[in-house]
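Sequence design from tokenized structure. All designs in this work follow the same two-part layout: the structure record, then the generated sequence. An example of the structure record is given first.
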């Protein structure tokens, strides 16, 4: 009986919301999806979440969406709150919301063709007048073969008041369709189950949600680095799980700072998925992201896996010249974001790349990867085409946005060095020009030196051919094989087998998805060798 009353109340609330206050928006239409949020007069705050209703109107590609159209993707309850640090103080507020059922429980749904979940974000664009910066970074990182949050530009109303253009997307969390790592239960406190999965990050701390690194970053012995437990969070993680994750990161840092860099078996490389660190480095440096190495910086580790860098997040301070530290204010495209500790940021960077780049073979891998990507997803043509596609999509919506927020020509949000264009098209051109100048500098000064082989490392112990491959690969070495492992770019173990052989090993890879993989070979003499290969 109580449940039926709640359901009745749910539909009654929806009807009342439909009948109140929407008159002033009846003529509104957009090429973007429309999000209509109604709190029934309640204020949205930064915790706890406010109960509200959400309608999403999305009639499909190249179709007009009208405020008065019937909801398409969602018409129900949400819990919504303000999110973000500095961005939460902007006039256009960013939001975090969870979809809920009539009983107030989490409701996993697919929104805008994204995989089912209940946690979502609406990122504001007050600090990004191009509406492109986050979308571009996520898109490029995904095209490089990594998971990045799925997103879609939209226009938002809260309590029938227009709020402007937002970037709707997935919240970063453990999920088979998001950060695909093993689920940790409260009882997983020993053995193999204790090894993962975990997500941790470098960011602003809140109470006791972190541990402090045993190591200070290079060249800054007085800096303290804090790592935040993200999954499981501080409410759910057990003492054993806390200790395991801390000890694993401690062991990685000990190997990075105190052991031979080239030691493949016990050195730092045995603790990380180096391809993920390379791609994270590249997208953070191409965008010269002020936040990329100091905050909103995520890592994850699967069961029996290694540390992966990413997913990437938070690029509204990227792709621009920011007044302050010389690294980020240079207008000639110069400066390395990974050296952000030299700016004495509020959140101290671990500074791992300072040490890792002393490994010449790793730096060479970065160089090879960068110039290979410059031929496709990091080419200026590809990037500008993506920017233009979004700019064309918001051609009409941007006028409404800037009628709401009259900030064109004004220096708001991140303090920029450059003059502020007074038109939206000027903002788009400024962004494309910035990228062109940045790529010219990176082409000249990129770390490392590529020997022309994009996929192989400088280590010659292990050979893989053909590379790229389709159905099968051969692994060959002068040493005797003992065990073979293959990992994907997320550090997830895809294949493992003990193979005692003096001859070349043939492996069937026809069931593998296209992408980049890492093969690790353990030899009978105890040596360990890793090699990248690509499957078409």
């Amino acid at each position: 009986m109580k449940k039926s009353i709640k359901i009745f109340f749910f539909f009654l609330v929806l009807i009342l919301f439909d009948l109140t206050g929407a008159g002033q928006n009846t003529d509104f239409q957009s090429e973007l999806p429309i999000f209509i949020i109604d709190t029934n007069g309640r204020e949205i705050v930064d915790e706890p979440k406010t109960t509200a209703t959400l309608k999403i109107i999305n009639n499909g590609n190249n179709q007009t969406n009208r405020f008065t159209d019937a909801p398409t993707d969602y018409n129900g309850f949400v819990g919504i709150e303000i999110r973000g640090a500095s961005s939460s103080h902007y006039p256009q507020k960013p939001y975090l919301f969870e979809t809920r059922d009539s009983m107030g429980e989490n409701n996993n749904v697919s929104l805008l063709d994204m995989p089912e979940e209940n946690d979502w974000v609406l990122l504001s664009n007050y600090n990004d007048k191009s509406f492109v910066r986050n979308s571009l970074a996520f898109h490029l990182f995904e095209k490089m073969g990594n998971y990045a949050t799925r997103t879609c530009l939209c226009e938002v109303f809260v309590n029938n008041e227009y709020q402007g253009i937002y970037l709707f997307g997935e919240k970063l969390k453990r999920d088979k369709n998001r950060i695909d790592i093993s689920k940790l239960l409260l009882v997983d406190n020993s053995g193999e189950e204790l090894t993962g999965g975990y997500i941790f990050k470098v960011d602003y701390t809140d109470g006791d949600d972190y541990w402090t690194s045993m190591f200070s970053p290079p060249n800054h012995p007085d800096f303290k680095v804090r790592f935040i437990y993200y999954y499981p969070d501080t409410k759910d993680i057990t003492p054993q799980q806390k200790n395991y994750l801390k000890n694993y990161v401690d062991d990685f840092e000990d190997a990075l700072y105190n052991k031979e860099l080239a030691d493949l078996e016990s050195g730092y490389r045995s603790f990380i998925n180096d391809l993920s660190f390379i791609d994270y480095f590249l997208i953070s440096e191409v965008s010269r992201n002020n936040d990329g190495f100091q905050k909103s910086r995520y890592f994850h580790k699967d069961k029996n896996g290694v540390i992966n860098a990413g997913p990437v997040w938070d690029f509204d301070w990227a792709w621009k010249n920011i007044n302050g530290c010389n690294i980020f204010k240079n207008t000639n495209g110069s400066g390395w974001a990974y050296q952000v500790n030299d700016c004495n940021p509020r959140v101290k960077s671990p500074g791992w790349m300072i040490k890792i780049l002393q490994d010449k073979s790793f730096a060479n891998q970065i160089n090879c990867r960068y110039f290979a990507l410059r031929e496709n997803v990091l080419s200026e043509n590809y990037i500008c085409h993506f920017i233009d596609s979004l700019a064309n999509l918001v051609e009409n919506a941007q006028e409404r946005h800037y009628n709401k927020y009259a900030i064109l020509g004004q220096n708001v949000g991140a303090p920029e060095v450059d003059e502020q264009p007074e038109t939206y098209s000027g903002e788009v051109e400024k962004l494309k020009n910035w990228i062109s100048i940045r790529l010219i500098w990176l082409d000249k000064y990129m770390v490392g030196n590529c020997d022309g082989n994009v996929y192989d490392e400088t280590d010659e112990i292990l050979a893989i051919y053909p590379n790229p491959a389709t159905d099968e690969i051969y692994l060959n070495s002068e040493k005797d094989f003992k065990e073979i492992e293959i990992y994907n770019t997320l550090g997830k173990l895809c294949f493992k087998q003990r193979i005692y052989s003096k001859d070349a090993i043939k492996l069937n890879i026809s069931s593998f998805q296209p992408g980049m993989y890492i093969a690790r070979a353990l030899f009978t003499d105890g040596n360990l060798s890793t090699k990248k290969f690509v499957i078409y």
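The first strand starts at residue 29 and ends at 30. We note this feature because it recurs in several other targets discussed in the main text.
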